[in-house]
Write a structure and sequence with these properties.
Shape: globular
CATH architecture of the largest domain: 3-Layer(aba) Sandwich
Number of domains: 2
EC number: 5.4.3.8
Radius of gyration: 21 Å
CATH topology of the largest domain: Aspartate Aminotransferase, domain 2
Structural class: alpha/beta
Strand order of the largest sheet: 4-12-11-10-7-5-6
Strand content: 15-25%
Enzyme class: isomerase
Helix content: 25-40%
Protein name: Glutamate-1-semialdehyde 2,1-aminomutase
Keywords: Isomerase
CATH superfamily of the largest domain: Type I PLP-dependent aspartate aminotransferase-like (Major domain)
Organism: Nocardioides zeae
Bound molecules: 4'-deoxy-4'-aminopyridoxal-5'-phosphate
């Protein structure tokens, strides 16, 4: 029988010493997941992860994005070990910082400069600050529901945040040009930035690619207003297109926030931008004690080099397609109308007529017991370590999971 005794005992200990037992996006694991879902993990290797009770899973969460090449990727860990030998947090940055900035400006199409931080929120917040410094304007246009981080402007939960903190946020509907233009018209002359994700990846709803019309409208509106277009690639970094996620649409942002996969799980984020915003970026004060640490930068260099060399978006795309085809066929065979929506590199599970997510919960619950870690309401992530054998193993697990829920449905 399935049991998570160690997970249960660690949860009980956490409940005593961590407010609510867990915080931030990890509370979802505790409060809003199927019963068999582990909260605490012990280790990862390649495409696999192990929970604290020793169960092994094919990992389709990839730490919610950071794991791009597979857990503990050899080239990345070698770069980490080599830099760690020399030191990590020093009395100033190491040369790796400049190496990394050079690499990003070579790799990302619109990037003329780069600066670094730790988390996605640091990068999106810095982007907004640069935009305001450059324009002297206040308003920040964002798609409603879209997540851009945990600071006072963006956090989805408003406990501890004042209305004043959010006064300058204006929302529009993603992929809805009319609603975008309405928001722009209402605040024309006072718009510092428009921030968007490359595609719509809100939790609980089907993913939606940006239409070319929408992307172009965002670009044109920002240009017309003299506002900065910020592309929030925190979640998509290196998975869709290493040059920038909107390159295929021919739309270039002024600023891009990267995090998550940038260093294959090591803590570093980046803000890159165009020359026109260089002096504003030099003017703002953004920093942190650990923002200059060398080890994560060495990890980022190795990760980006590897991602470019193997064409990570294509490799992960093939793995994602194989998984999508296999899962959807397995679902159909078991009598379920189910799809993986959005980019195949970061798919979202979607059962037809499953508004309350009952089927998604039952299915992901069963999949865990067959060695596959999926998510019922958040987009998932495929890595370059998900080779054919791994994906086929996952599909076999998924087939068993569909059979199980078909029996009990
Ligand atoms: N933007 C997007 C699109 C994200 O997905 C996230 C994290 N899920 C963030 C910003 C915030 O990143 P972090 O949690 O690293 O601060």
């Amino acid at each position: 029988a399935w049991a998570l005794p160690r997970d249960q005992s660690v949860r009980a200990r956490a409940a005593a010493v961590v407010p609510g037992g867990m915080y931030g996006h990890m509370t979802a694991n505790a409060q809003n997941m199927p019963p068999s879902f582990p909260q605490f993990y012990d280790r990862g290797a390649g495409a696999y992860t192990w929970d604290v009770d020793g169960h092994r899973y094919v990992d389709f969460l990839c730490a919610f994005g950071p794991v791009l090449l597979g857990h503990r990727h050899e080239r990345v860990e070698a770069a980490v070990a080599a830099q760690a030998e020399r030191g990590d947090t020093l009395s100033g940055p190491s040369e790796r910082m400049v190496d990394l900035a050079e690499l990003l400006t070579e790799t990302v199409a619109h990037a003329d400069w780069a600066m670094f931080a730790k988390n996605g929120t640091d990068a999106t917040s810095a982007a907004v600050r640069v935009a305001r410094a450059a324009t002297g304007k206040r308003k920040l246009l964002k798609a409603s529901v879209a997540y851009h981080g945990a600071n006072d402007w963006f956090t989805p939960r408003t406990a501890g945040v004042t209305a004043e903190d959010r006064l300058n946020i204006v929302e529009f509907a993603y992929n809805d040009v009319a609603s975008l233009l309405e928001a722009v018209a209402e605040h024309t002359g006072d718009i510092a930035a428009i921030i968007v994700t490359p595609f719509r990846h809100d939790a609980f709803v089907e993913q939606e690619l940006a239409t070319a019309e929408f992307a172009r409208a965002v670009r044109e509106a920002a240009t017309r207003e003299g506002a900065a277009l910020i592309l929030d690639e925190v979640r998509t970094a290196l998975r869709l297109d290493v040059r920038g996620a909107w390159e295929h649409l021919g739309v270039r942002p002024d600023l891009t926030a990267f995090s998550k996969a940038l260093a294959n799980g090591h803590p570093v984020s980046a803000l890159v931008g165009v020359d026109a915003l260089r002096s504003a970026a030099a003017e703002v004060y953004v920093t942190g004690s650990f923002w200059f640490s060398a080890v994560p930068m060495a990890a980022a260099i190795a990760t980006i080099q590897e991602a470019v060399e193997i064409d990570a978006p294509a490799v992960i795309g093939r793995a994602g397609s194989r998984f999508k085809d296999g899962l959807e066929a397995a679902g159909r065979a078991a009598g379920f109308e189910v799809a993986l929506t959005g980019p195949v590199q970061m798919p979202m599970l979607n059962f037809a007529d499953d508004r309350d997510k009952k089927l998604a919960f039952a299915f992901t619950d069963a999949a865990l017991r067959h060695g596959v870690l999926l998510h019922p309401w958040h987009n998932m992530f495929v890595s370059a370590a998900h080779d054919d054998a791994v994906v086929d193993e996952a599909i076999a697990g998924v087939v068993a999971a569909f059979r199980e829920i078909a029996r009990t449905a």
